[in-house]
Structures are given as structure tokens and as C-alpha cells.
Design goal:
With about 170 residues, the protein is mostly beta strands. The protein contains 3 helices and 12 strands; from the N terminus they run H-E-E-E-E-E-H-E-H-E-E-E-E-E-E. The protein is globular, with a radius of gyration of 17 Å. The structure holds flavin mononucleotide.
């Protein structure tokens, strides 16, 4: 076992964090500007994020964080809404495309538009249509708190991210 070190060593910090398994989401919004929602077409942005979590039931609030060096920062900072899509274990290709894909990340991705006109990925295990309620710059990320206006879910198993790899869950007896 590694002993605590001071100051925090970044690779060790990342290794320790990676022992905490998370689900994986793709968060989508519009790239911004003066576009009419009816004409948005392909001008959506999205990224893979494992930082999603719940905050509050009343009001219904969720949280996630966005790295300051993401090209999507300006879009999410000014967006009125975004959609958090929780990925199933059948959606590893979408996870990789929204994390590493070059060009249009929606290329080949099936989606429907939610009430706010933003992409809900087909096959997602759950989705949360959020109002962009508040933002808090902290360190090298911005923390976003979303107020959930609508949500839905489907049957299936989640995609899990841990120790730099992907897996699906195996239920234990009991
Ligand atoms: C499993 C996984 C989880 C990730 N979680 C986050 C996250 O919570 N926040 C974030 O800003 N980036 C996260 N990333 C990285 C972004 O998906 C990626 O850096 C981003 O899409 C880079 O491209 P961009 O500059 O077009 O945003 C994650 C990547 C992977 C593979």
C-alpha cells in the first residue's frame, strides 16, 4: 500500500481516484450563437463525462464538472439547457466517440431531440434534461449544477469506468 504523500503527487492522485468506479455519461448541448432551435441541425456539441452525480431531490439537482481545456467550455457556459445521457454497456463506441472523436462527434449517432431541442441519445439507460442552473469555477474544472426539468430511463445495464478501463456490472448474490 502506498503511504500518503505531501504535497499530492498528481499521478498518485489519479490512480487513487481511478479506484472509485463511476457510470459514464454523454452530455449534449447546442454550440451557441444566434441559431434558431428549428435550424440547429448538426450544430450540437457533446462530451463524455464520468463526473455526473446527484445533488438534491427537492429541487431535483445534479452535478458534473467540465475541464477548462475542453473546446465545449464556451458552449456549456452560455447554454440555457443541456442533456445528461447515462450510457448503457452497449454504448462503448459512443463513449469513445464523444471522448476522442475528431470532427463531428454526432456523426453516426442516433438521437432524438428533447423538449429543449437537445440530443437524447438512442439506447441511453437514463437521460436528464437540465436547466443550466449554476456554474462554479474550481481548479482546472467548472462545476455545473443542473436543475432537472425532465428525465427518463430504460432497461439495461450501465457502462462502468474504473482504473482507466470499461466494464459492465455483475450483480452479487443477495
Ligand atoms: C470515461 C471518461 C470520462 C470522462 N469524464 C470527463 C468529465 O467528467 N469531464 C470532462 O471535462 N472531461 C471528461 N472526459 C474527457 C472528455 O470526454 C474529453 O477530454 C473531451 O471530449 C475532449 O474533447 P473536447 O475538447 O472536444 O471537449 C472523460 C473521458 C473519458 C474517456
Amino acid at each position: 500500500m502506498n503511504s500518503p504523500s505531501t504535497p499530492i503527487d498528481t499521478p498518485q492522485f489519479k490512480q487513487a481516484l481511478s479506484r472509485f468506479p463511476t457510470g459514464v455519461s454523454v452530455i449534449t448541448t447546442h454550440q451557441g450563437g444566434d441559431a434558431n432551435p428549428a435550424e440547429w441541425g448538426h450544430s450540437f456539441v457533446g462530451l463524455t463525462a464520468s463526473s455526473f452525480n446527484s445533488v438534491s431531490l427537492t429541487p431535483p439537482l445534479v452535478v458534473w464538472s467540465l475541464g477548462l481545456n475542453s473546446r465545449t467550455v464556451p458552449s456549456f457556459q452560455k447554454a440555457s439547457h443541456y442533456v445528461i445521457n447515462v450510457l448503457s454497456d452497449q454504448q462503448l463506441p459512443a463513449c469513445q466517440q464523444f471522448a476522442f472523436g475528431q470532427g463531428d462527434r454526432f456523426n453516426g449517432i442516433d438521437y432524438e431531440l428533447g423538449v429543449a431541442g437537445l440530443p437524447i441519445l438512442k439506447g441511453a439507460l437514463a437521460w436528464f434534461e437540465c436547466r443550466n442552473r449554476s456554474q462554479y469555477p474550481e481548479g482546472d474544472h467548472i462545476i455545473f449544477v443542473g436543475e432537472v426539468e425532465r428525465c427518463g430511463f430504460a432497461d439495461g445495464s450501465p457502462l462502468v469506468y474504473q482504473q482507466g478501463g470499461f466494464s459492465s456490472v455483475q450483480k452479487l448474490a443477495g
